[in-house]
Amino acid sequence: MASNQSSKYLISNSIYKPFLTDLGLEEENLGVFDGKWFANGQVIDSINPSTNEPIARVRQGSQEDYNRIVESSQNAFQYWSTIPAPKRGDIVRQIGDELRSNIQSLGKLISIEMGKILPEGVGEVQEFIDICDYAVGLSRMYEGKILPSERPGHVLMEQWNPLGIIGIITAFNFPCAVFGWNQAIALACGNVTLWKGAPTTPLTSIATTKIVERVLKRNNLPGGLSSLICGGSDIGISISKDKRIPLVSFTGSTNVGKQVALTVHERFGKTILELGGNNAIIIMDDADLTLAIPAVFFAAVGTAGQRCTTARRLIVQEGIYDEVLTGLGRAYKQIESRIGEPFEKNILYGPLHTKQAVDLYEKTIEQIKKSNGHIYYGGEVYKERKGNFVQPTIVTELKHDSPIVHQETFAPILYVLKCKTFEEAVQWNNEVNQGLSSSIFTNNPEYLFKWIGPNGSDCGIVNVNIPTSGAEIGGAFGGEKHTGGGRESGSDSWKQYMRRSTCTINYSKQLPLAQGIQFA
User: Which fold has domain 279-474?
Assistant: First the structure.
């Protein structure tokens, strides 16, 4: 709905207006969808973290709005679950095609609202497209087993059925792709989705849902297949408590994820948790440094250190420690001329997402200094800039088990640690609470296979000679320990969105019992 106020919003700026209006956005936007757009909650501004200027307004949903969309989702599921899986897959294919048509506009929105550079914003939409392609194939392939029965005239088989409403709560750092991981697979499996995006990226949530809405309308499908509600923690709590939502997929901090898990499991619901990651890269003295140093640079600095898979610890064998540190310092210096508004070309490094994130960065730098850590590079806030810009930072001279090293800070701070042996490096990799992503750089086959084996990395993502970040959709994404144990995206992650029934069918005229029991 249009506003009559003279605009202070970027959506009225000629630079931003074309792609924002192409996405169906206005100066004030309704943040709830169940086939119709409405909202009765408070109005908030969406902020561009590069300048701290408002992009547009969003009216969030209320508790009454939430109850309405749950009912719409329930009704949609009753219909959608009866559609043959390959037909559902065709709808997912159309969603992917619609995203392709809007990839540049949506990528630009992600860039200005989240703060990641434009190639990463576009890449995030591509990730949604890729998982749609994957889900189309899955819709013709997911299967149960037919098992041999010990009883004559009997068939033993597995049947997979959809769960119902999948509650999806996503974080600011991937405001589109993580929803896509969940939705594409959930829809192909016969579920419907109810999405609450991050409160600080509501425009991306709305624009993405509008793209899905076009496909639903063209096919005369109920909007409750893809419900949306923009809101705060109160809506997240409602989703967690709601017995009508059998599975909640949550992406966010470990502390909030723990509360979500306790609430959902108290009602015996299911969760997929994608939480924190204090990820490490190990560089052994036989490594190819022409691969290792650029990989560390991307993993530590990409998205301004705000990926769940960001490298936060670098463990280097002592014989090459100085060489690695020098090379990494050179790489960091080269980024100085490529810091800026991520929407612009040739920018490699954008802002932190909020002012609160800048405050946390400053407090962490102060704590590092009090712990006798050395700021090898960076450590400052770019106070002359309007936005939330901080220097990418390298820290040395802290012990591997320092409390600050074991604390995940969502900022571009990299702790460089010197190790003696492979065994010591693996121990340090595994000693933190989280277990999301990890990587080793080596050309030694013994190290390689020990690293991916039972006594190697204890993470859900275990890489060799590539960064910790930048996962492909074909594999299952997720981690262990305080990362939550959930798996999304590829491989057999689809099983988490379905319930499995073991079916024994007697087609004979006899009634033999299992284990040869006689009961007559």
Answer: Aldehyde Dehydrogenase; Chain A, domain 2 (3.40.309)
